[in-house]
Design brief:
Number of helices: 11
Strand order of the largest sheet: 9-7-5-2-10-1-11-15-19-20
Strand content: 15-25%
Largest sheet: 10 strands, mixed
Length: 422
């Protein structure tokens, strides 16, 4: 019996998951998103086109694939409809390739307003929300108030919508000075709801397990990154869902024994968007150079990403939590022109050196670095591991030795072709 393979990010998101899923998908007939919402931004580059997927799984462009939006995902009908329209404009038949879990929760227009009002009220203590209504939607889910995709087909849908909207409007009264008008967005939202009715709503746990039992190869695609996990990330600067491998079980209805290979994606350096701790962050021209060469601006938000050296303490922690069986290194080419490459191999906390990721990460943490000689070579056109410069191979092999996990794929550019599979 085939198992569900998993691909997810090991850092603070933006690791390049969209490209990796697109590269891996020829081996899978089913690709499934299991958590998160339109705060994701998976970029795919091929045939001189660029697509940014926020809710739809990254296998949508592969012929014959089925793409599942799982029960652990939260859906904004407006954003999803715009995404659908853009893809369909290029002649992709989505109605036969996209299925949506009935148990996935809906992001209401008032969820977005609550998100914005709550973030504005935090002032300097902002957590860096994308303001897409993700957090308030998950709060309603755990508070047992949420509206789900399956409710769309119920005769009581409008009544349930109005009840939840009314609850939100009462909550918004606590934010005295926050002005809002949902009229236009609400109109678009109901148009989006009608649009979603074109697609097949499924009981995704039965659907996925039937596929497993039929030996169909399935790839579960994570969004955000492991260090943003609600339980194991740098709390409270995290997302509202389980971004780690365990999220596949709850976000798709898959038993732990049905998980197969776990591919962990990481950049050859580190980035983070928005607020929150980042021990190896660089505030100098080296960090700015990384940002410029790597074009480190959010594909969904356009926000500038903070940049820093690879953090081995955080990486080993994420590998442990996820049970990673194979590593995938992204954006190695961004470091082509650096004289020295650094990796944080430990933290100094109150003068004491630690290698385990701590409960609280704050400004008092000082990274302990190991230095490597840069390869100072353009590796964009390399297509075989043997052809990489010795300095680059030394960097890769150090990561393998430290983590105990092989680096199976190396990306040296955004295009499908700029990928070395070992």
């Amino acid at each position: 019996m085939k198992k569900v393979d998993v691909v997810l990010g090991l850092q603070w998101g933006d690791e390049g998951k969209g490209k990796v899923v697109d590269v891996l998908t020829p081996s899978y007939s089913i690709i499934a998103r299991f958590q998160g919402g339109p705060n994701a931004g998976h970029s795919l580059h091929f045939e001189d086109k660029k697509y940014i997927l926020q809710t739809i799984p990254s296998g949508i462009f592969r012929d014959g694939s089925i793409n599942i939006i799982g029960n652990g995902v939260v859906i904004d009908p407006v954003i999803l409809s715009k995404e659908i329209a853009k893809i369909e404009k290029d002649g992709i038949d989505l109605e036969n390739k996209l299925v949506i879990s009935q148990k996935a929760h809906l992001i209401l227009p008032t969820h977005r307003i609550l998100d914005a009002a709550s973030e504005a009220a935090k002032g300097g203590a902002k957590i860096g929300s994308t303001l897409k209504g993700i957090g308030p939607t998950y709060m309603d889910k755990t508070g047992r108030n949420g509206l789900r995709v399956g409710d769309i087909l119920s005769d009581a849908f409008m009544e349930r919508y109005e009840t939840l909207k009314e609850k939100h409007l009462k909550m918004l009264k606590q934010y005295d000075d926050f002005q809002f008008d949902i009229t236009e967005y609400e109109k678009e939202w109901f148009e989006g709801i009608e649009n979603l009715k074109r697609f097949k709503f499924v009981e995704s746990e039965h659907f996925v397990n039937a596929c497993i039992n039929s030996d169909k190869p399935i790839l579960a695609e994570g969004a955000q990154g492991s260090m943003l996990d609600i339980d194991f990330g740098t709390y409270p600067f995290v997302t509202s869902s389980n971004t780690v491998c365990a999220g596949v079980c709850t976000g798709l209805g898959v038993a732990p024994t049905k998980i197969g290979d776990v591919y962990g994606i990481f950049k050859a350096y580190c980035t983070r968007v928005g607020s929150g701790p980042f021990p190896t962050e660089l505030f100098d021209k080296v960090g700015q150079k990384m940002c410029d060469i790597g074009m480190e601006y959010g594909s969904t938000t356009g926000r500038k990403r903070r940049c820093g050296w690879l953090d081995m303490v955080a990486l080993k922690y994420a590998i442990m939590i996820n049970g990673v069986s194979g590593l995938i290194m992204m954006k190695a080419d961004v470091l082509n022109d650096f004289d020295t490459i650094k990796v944080a191999v430990a933290y100094k906390v109150n003068g004491k050196e630690v290698k385990d990721f701590p409960f609280e990460v704050n400004d008092g943490i000082e990274p302990v670095y190991k230095e490597f000689k840069g390869w100072k070579t353009d590796i964009n056109n390399v297509r075989k591991y043997e052809d990489f410069p010795a300095e680059f191979k030394q960097y890769v092999e150090f990561i393998e030795k430290e983590t105990g996990v092989p680096v199976k794929i190396i990306s040296v550019g955004p295009d499908r072709e700029e990928t070395i599979i070992r």
